[in-house]
Automatic annotation (TrEMBL):
Name under which the protein is recorded: Ribosomal protein S18-alanine N-acetyltransferase
Residue intervals of the N-acetyltransferase domain: 6-155
Species assigned in the record: Actinophytocola glycyrrhizae
UniProt entry keywords in alphabetical sequence: Acyltransferase, Cytoplasm, Ribonucleoprotein, Ribosomal protein, Transferase
PANTHER family given in the database record: ACETYLTRANSFERASE (PTHR43420), ACETYLTRANSFERASE YPEA (PTHR43420:SF44)
GO cellular component: ribosome
InterPro entries, sorted: AcTrfase_RimI/Ard1, Acyl_CoA_acyltransferase, GNAT_dom, YpeA/RimI_acetyltransf
């Protein structure tokens, strides 16, 4: 396990090729996102953040979409990925929290899909208030792996007294 300080910043377009590279490492049995997929997400205005380590550059990325306005919004986590050499340093947790903060700006419930065999990710999501609400058989392609659909209720900021 590598240990280093990282920072979260808006995902830079110059790093989209690195995102696609990480996708092929992280999701070898499935159809990893290509650089153009990440480009389309940014072009659509979705919220993407990168985790950057000074000596290593981009080591993680995450994205979420929010549709609707405050009080009537819904959010969907599109992706979270961390370079295997940097996993275990809290990067995935920090990326998820950044996405959830974005959803909370809109008081939006959050949904996502996660492979049923990804115990680490499921544990992370459950620790952040997600529950399993469904199953999508053969969701991931071409592996045919199943996915849980998970959801976290909207978080509404407490009003000041």
């Amino acid at each position: 396990m590598t240990s280093a300080t990282f920072r979260l910043e808006p995902l830079r377009r110059v790093d989209l090729a690195r995102c696609a590279e990480l996708e092929t490492i992280l999701f070898p049995g499935d159809d990893p996102w290509r650089e153009s997929s990440f480009q389309a997400e940014l072009d659509a205005g979705h919220h993407y953040v990168g985790a950057y380590v000074p000596a290593a550059g981009l080591v993680g990325y995450a994205g979420i979409s929010v549709v609707g306005g405050p009080g009537d919004a819904e959010a969907n986590v599109h992706t979270i990925g961390v370079d295997p050499g940097w996993q275990g340093n809290g990067i995935g947790r920090a990326l998820l929290r950044a996405l959830l903060a974005r959803a909370d700006e809109f008081a939006a419930p959050v949904h996502l899909e996660v492979r049923t065999d990804n115990a680490a990710a499921i544990g992370l999501y459950e620790a952040h208030g997600f529950t399993r609400i469904g199953m999508r058989r053969r969701y991931y392609w071409p592996s045919g792996a199943d996915a849980y659909t998970m959801a976290r209720p909207a978080r509404v900021a407490e009003e000041a007294p």
